[in-house]
UniProtKB/TrEMBL annotation:
Pfam families: Acetyltransf_3. Gene3D superfamilies: 3.40.630.30. CDD domains: NAT_SF. GO terms for molecular function: acyltransferase activity, transferring groups other than amino-acyl groups. This is Acetyltransferase, GNAT family. The keyword Transferase applies. Residues 9-172 form the N-acetyltransferase domain.
Amino acid sequence: MERKQEAGVILRAMEPEDLDMLYHIENDRSLWNIASTNVPYSRYALHNYIADAKNDIYMDGQIRMMIENLAHEVVGVIDLVDFDPKHQRAELGIIIMKRFRRRGYAQAAISSLIEYARKVLHLRQIYAVVSVSNEVSQRCLASLGFIGDSVLKEWIYCDGHYQDARVMQFFV
């Protein structure tokens, strides 16, 4: 996959060298409340995931890219999952590593992904499901043109209780 660059970030395909970063992200229990992950992943499973990924949303049903800043530091991961080819939509997921947050990387990465979705993947819609308590993510998405007033009641189970989630959509 070619590299994509915009506003201080580069989106690139996963490489074997990203194994440690993915291992850290996938096994960080503090992130499990924002994703559907609820079990740890082994290095072996993640190694195979990287090796087997075709980086083709039609073959894999998803696409995951590493987010680098212009100094070529990996600052996070962004993906499109649950790809629906009939309706041309996919769900956005993004994680920015804690030490790189609040620097504009998420906004830049999502903006770059939107352009990729528009020009290369020809998606019609990108959506995100965000906890109603995650105001930072909601503001970030809204600043990029995501809209959403639909609330999924008790959608996310975290720390022994359910939280409502907001569906935010972007029409590419």
